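During the second year of the project, the team shifted from modelling isolated chains to modelling whole assemblies. The rationale, set out in the original proposal, was that interfaces cannot be judged from single-chain predictions alone. As a representative example for this report, we include one of the complexes processed in the last quarter. Its constituent sequences, exactly as entered into the pipeline, are reproduced here:
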Amino acid sequence: MKMLWCWRCQLEMPMLDEAEWAEVMAAHNRSVAKPQSGVTQRHQPAPAVGRGAEVSAPAYAARFIDVLDAYERITGFRETNPAAIWHHRVAQYGPPCAACGKPLRTPRARMCAACGASRTEASPPAA
Ligand SMILES: [Zn+2]
Ligand SMILES: [Zn+2]
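Output from the structure prediction step:
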């Protein structure tokens, strides 16, 4: 777990490394497999967290309580919105900006979206 600036939350958030991410995904798969009482539900992908879009369906949070629990166990941080966890993964971000320290928005970013500094590494991986 690593505290990283989250571009979507506009906050430093606990981000999961790949091993931790796998644990949370396992919890997610268990949640998806759980039978839903009284609801006929096909498998539905997690609602995308768009710009400023807040997904706050209590039923959704209740369904993915295992995911929230796993995230809390790992990070010590009680997240209430399962959808927020999908983007709290270290591997989705680039290395920290040499100028301002915020993580580059993607692993392939060529410049920092926060301060405009160009990436200092020799060359970003080819797309
Ligand atoms: Zn976030
Ligand atoms: Zn920067």
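The longest helix spans residues 18-33. The chain has a mean pLDDT of 85.
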